[in-house]
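STRUCTURE REQUEST FORM
Protein name: Cryptochrome-2, variant 3
Source organism: Pisum sativum
Requested output: structure tokens
Priority: standard
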Amino acid sequence: MTGKVEKHSIEQLGLEDELEKSSNSSLGRSWSPGWSKSDKALAEFIENYLLHYSGNRLNLGGDSTSLLSPYIHFGELSVRKVFQLARTKQILWTHEGNIIGEESATLFLRAIGFREYSRYLCFSFPFTLERPLLGNLKFFPWNNDPSNFKAWRQGRTGYPLVDAGMRELWATGWIHNKMRVIVSSFAVKMLLIPWKWGMKYFWDTLLDADLESDILGWQYISGSLPDGHKLERLDDPEVLGRKYDPAGEYIRQWLPELARMPAEWIHHPWDAPLTVLTASGVELGQNYPKPIIDIDLAREQLTQAIFKMWETEAATKASSSQDRQVVDENEKLLIPKVFLKDKVPRGATSANDQTVPILQNLKSDDPPNKRQKCTAEEDRKPDKSRNRSDHTEVSCIDQEDCSTAESSSKRQCSSTSSFSVP
Ligand SMILES: Cc1cc2nc3c(=O)[nH]c(=O)nc-3n(C[C@H](O)[C@H](O)[C@H](O)COP(=O)(O)OP(=O)(O)OC[C@H]3O[C@@H](n4cnc5c(N)ncnc54)[C@H](O)[C@@H]3O)c2cc1C
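Status: completed
Returned output:
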């Protein structure tokens, strides 16, 4: 078959209308599709950023890691090429006695190794898409509460670090690995949300959504891998916030309603004196939620759930040895289906729209990528007057029901300066 391949713009192909441009441009900050862009991103990372990967890789915002995952997932970058370039640098730095460089390259190659490990697991244990690798979680009594799931998706749990991560995920389609661990652990350990629901939501929202890596990540945090987090491990988001975002900059970036909270209280606004809350324009339960669950209660519920799991497991084993039929309750745990009560017209904003400060000045025709965004960090700190009006915009905690399946279509409802949450 012969024929001429012609080049057409996205507009000519009718793939994007005016209303979709702004939300698409925000996704473009993390990924600009195309081989030339992927090669450029790889070269830039290897030459300028790999050297400091070991020191920077735990910073939550911006360019602390390679940001190559969407390119690798979509095959725009061969993982062998990434490996080869990083390995070459590692050899060079070892030869030069550059300890920092050598350590950075080793850690980066290890990260690539995790990706290979995810492939190995799924190839060797294909059922891990549906079931945990360790059989223990089969009997775990998940709390399949759609309202908790929704609060988590919308970044309205009342735990600022978690909420900031979930809002960044929705706005840009990308969050740092550490944030993925924090928000997924919160869902599974604090709220007892079935890990498969979270995995599905990540699958719907991540630009780098990758079946094997997603499975590995969710099983890693939910205690179903032999070398992952223990099932009983529950991390306190307040403590993690102090550790990974001590000044609260990441939170301020993604939660405009907390932008004026002092660093001392930003990770636990529920403890802040009323005078501090008032001065910061925060009304708990009004423009920012109270914690969805108390940490001590969450610990207790997790412990009870683990005991219940053991009991059910023992009872099931006992009954199956008497040749009785065993029904696995978790097999019936379906991800909630979503039906929008009313279809939101395109371009309309709703009461649950959230304003993302950094999106305000984006030009839709020239989306800065994540790296550029980071170097311009100082320029886009939210100004106080804007935040004052922002928090009034999110004063209503909505009751509308919608699901992960709607994520892509709802994204299109965003206006220039705001976006709908799932
Ligand atoms: C719950 C959860 C879900 C995840 N879902 C995905 C997913 O859908 N797609 C995805 O690509 N990654 C996923 N990850 C892994 C990891 O978070 C991302 O690969 C990483 O954050 C991508 O950013 P980067 O390219 O800057 O990473 P870098 O730190 O620069 O790492 C370089 C490359 O190594 C690979 N990599 C790094 N860490 C991991 C890891 N833990 N597991 C697998 N591969 C890794 C990626 O291909 C990445 O691009 C998930 C992690 C968790 C905890």
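Reviewer notes: The two ends are 45 Å apart (CA to CA). The first strand starts at residue 354 and ends at 355.
Form closed.
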